[in-house]
Amino acid sequence: MRAAQRPLLVTGFGPFPGVPRNPSAALARRIGRLVGPKIGGLPVRVLVLPTTYSAIPEVLEPALAEGPAAILMLGVATRAKRVRVEAQGRNRTSRLFPDASGRIAARLTLEREGPAARRTAFGRQGLAILRRAGVPAVPSRDAGRYLCNATYFRALREGCPALFLHIPMPPRTARPARPAKPRRQGPQEAMAQAFVEVARGLAVRARP
Question: 29 near 195, Cβ under 8 Å?
């Protein structure tokens, strides 16, 4: 399959314990609506992953088997204050935190014969794109020990341009008592627009 026919895959996550509404799912879908059917010549596919370990073989791997040209992955970091640009996925997990189905990881490594970590080559460029767009973003070398790290580690095995972005929880806002005046673009929309530019950069990087 030619690179131009292979999709740019955008992923987010569904709910998990403590986060009944995962903002990464809404953001992934918003990116899909903003870019339309293609970006940088690549068709776009949006995939919301169940926050379960079974979703890796059952949902993510079939999408990876289609041979995406590039991958943009989104997840939420509940304690983060800024967007975290993840440099790597590590071959590790934790048996302390159950997934959305109540299951815990079967072991402390994701792949018995896998490397200690897999790294992206797009981290610095992705960080620069976000900062140019005015989105507060920081580099990170630790994607955690939960499903965000597990899916990133697996996706990086494909060898195509890939990046994982951890987003903060959006602030809670009270519903206005009366119609508000039109506002400028809010921070969540600005973030979505900036992530579109990250996706565009990945698409360009994926060109042969």
Answer: no
Which residues form the catalytic set?
86, 148, 166
Give yes or no for residue 155 having a pLDDT over 90: yes
H/E element, 166:
strand 162-167
Largest CA distance in the chain: 59
| Residue-wise burial string across 71-90, b where 16 or more C-beta atoms lie within 10 A, e elsewhere | bbbbbbbeeeeebbbbbbbb
Q: Which residues contact 84 (CB under 8 A, 6 or more apart)?
A: 77, 137, 138, 139, 140, 165, 166
Counting every residue, how long is the chain?
A: 208
Fold topology of 3-171+184-206: Aminopeptidase (3.40.630)
pTM greater than 0.85 (yes/no): yes
Going from N- to C-terminal start, the domains of the chain cover: 3-171+184-206
